Structures are given as C-alpha cells and as structure tokens.
Give the backbone structure.
Amino acid sequence: METRRRSLVKAVIWNVIGIVSMTLVGLLATGSASLGGKMALINTVIGFGCYLIYERVWSNIHWGRRG
C-alpha cells in the first residue's frame, strides 16, 4: 500500500510540472504572463486536491494488484 507521504510527494511534483505547462499555455492563449499564471494557479489548486483524493481511493482498491 502506498503511504500518504508518497502520495503527497507525487502530487507536488506532478503539480509543479502542471503549473509550468499551464502557465505557458495561459501565456500563449492570453498574451499575459500574469493572467496565465493566475489561470495555472487556480488549475493547480483544483487539480492537486483531485489528484490526492484519486490516489488515495486507488490505493485502497486491490483489483489488478499482485502479491
């Protein structure tokens, strides 16, 4: 079973990657680094919470595991 700390670290790393890519997308879409950054931050906060919940749910599902 995956620990909560591992789930948290994975989520943080994933969200760092996501915030950088979303900032670039926001910049390209709006022409504003500030607006792109705000869009990325909002997306990151929502995505971070959803990802943590998703990971914790799947850590308790035994289907498809061996051992």
Q: What stands out?
A: The radius of gyration is 15 Å. DSSP finds two helices and no strands in the chain.
